[in-house]
Protein: F-box domain-containing protein
Organism: Crepidotus variabilis
Amino acid sequence: MALETLPLEITLHIISYLPIFSINQIRLLSRTWLLFLEEHENVIYQKAASLHGMVSGHSTSFAAPEWKKRFSSRSLAGATNWKTFCQTRLRLRRAWNGEAPSTTACRALRVARFPEKPAIEVREQVHRIKIDEQRKIIITTTAVGPPRVIVRDMDTGAALWHLEPTLGRNFSHLEYSEGFLIFNRRTDCREVWRLSELQTNHPLPHSAQPENFDTDSSPDDTMLQDSEAALSRARNLNTSSQNTANYRPRGCFEPYALLRDKEITRASRFCYPTLLTAAKDQAYLWDIPTGKVVEVIKGIQNAKLAVISEQRHVSRPIRESNGDHELGDDDGLEHVNAPQVLTPEVSLSTIPADDFDDWELESELDDYIAPQDLTTLRGIHYVDHSSAHTFIAGQYILKIFAKSTAISTQCKDFKPINEHEQLVFTLSSSKLRYGRWRYTIDPESGSNEGTDCSLVRYKFDISEEDMNPSQTSRLFDPFKAVHVSPCGSHFAALLSGARLLIVPHFCDLIGQSQETVYNSILDVQLSSPTNSESVYLAYEEGDGGEGRIGVVTTRGIFIVTFSPFFPNHPSHIPHPLRVCRVKLYMDPRGLANVSCLMLSDTYLFITYFQNGRDVAAWRLLGFVKDFKDGLRDFKTKGINSYVLSMNDFFTERQLDFDFFQTDYTVHALDLLPE
């Protein structure tokens, strides 16, 4: 039966299933199809946009109001109908895959440009970055000099609002979501500020608090005074005719709450409306709109899933994370009982970790001691959370806890096999191999050199190997970070040795066998663990659940993209992954000190040297060759035990560098250049 003989609705539905770039090719088939496409073009592309996840299924009008919550104005520029909208989104998807033009640039965000202090020359030293692409603002904190929180225009870099918190600290951790800004003080408190603009998802006006707000979390006088000073500076920077007593320029924040921690906390993660903070043995969940602790997860250090068997082991000392902290855990559960073995001490990062305290120092020293018990978190390296789960990455184990509100819903089919009913999944970082399918970069496959694309595409070499239950060899590789996907169904864990573990549909793995978990994990080696170290991890989702993971190692900045994960994907077929490296950034000295990586819809942001060098300079310095050689120099086959030391990586050339005498600013990779 010819397609054109079918009823109109069926024909339109079938065409919408085609790849978007193929729809336009239908017009070449015949004049009949040309006229058909021209007549029904808007309906066809609207159906295709919905089917491919670019818009929700109920979006029937072009540029619906709810689009503003998902798309920035720049990502919709030039989109005048459903066809041009689909073309723009497809172009953006291709750019993330290194198949369309993209540009990199250093954003001039000089701290010293405030008019009231024109003579002061402050080193740049941007520490943390948060992006709100919908509102076109960049929020940063500083590493050295007077502590500052600065809000700037995303397009121009111009300062909009500038807070100098009286009790602030350098290297302050920064959280932002839905108009709420959170950073930590020198004391055991966190300041919460709210964007003055009304276009947030919070149901109350910016000046109001809910009736059940905890008055113990009210802002103190210090925050109120700091707010007045910041507002005065913002008005001086603003030339609007509306500059009246009650006027608040764009980008201003107001004090909302002061959260007083119950104990010293090591890590935090905010996803509106919940802030997760982790202490040594407890995790706290704060409801930010009300300023209340709504749940405490106790006993996180020693919570176990099952009785563990003894295994031979070897330690892998790596520097403590210099950023946020999240969680990780392995498909196997090993308990080791062996004498403690001290390994050679190596230099720690020059950038202090967030929320530094005495027990954090103990965890850093633990990185040089062979672990006695792989079920214990020890130091908290990273945390994250979704609506149903809390992720806590310790040194050699990642633990996932179900939130109390989700135990009877999200995990209703799980029967706890441990005394800690909220612990549902663990993953330890002591394996030579973590999954059936392992992905390693082919060093000679790099393409796009010399083009208008700022990304270099690589191919993966994919190997398959069945799980070996009798494997006794160990490679201890501390967790660096963990991130749950925005949809809450998948997570990615980064190990210190440039290794990325992607776990799709982890809820389906709860209570399953080690082999089932092993068959599900995607094991990705981005560079050699003997001459590179992981630095930072970010996880975002594109249209239709397409995944985007950004990873910084001391050998490069990588973007791993993949199509949506579907349940019950056959284990004998590897999931297709794509990987690109950002072309410009290859200096191990600069990469080792990247303190933040952020992904948005159309940008990638990092902290990096104020003055970059071009690719030709990197090639002259040998970094491209070093990167390729590094992909070849580590083979796990035949290894019984392996001890990795950062002394294997840092060379004299790479250590000839002073962080505190170098300007670090915001660099941007633009995936949708004009």
Notes: The chain has three domains: 3-68, 104-296, 299-670. The CA atoms of residues 386 and 488 lie 5 Å apart. Residues 104-296 form one domain. The chain has twelve helices and 33 strands.
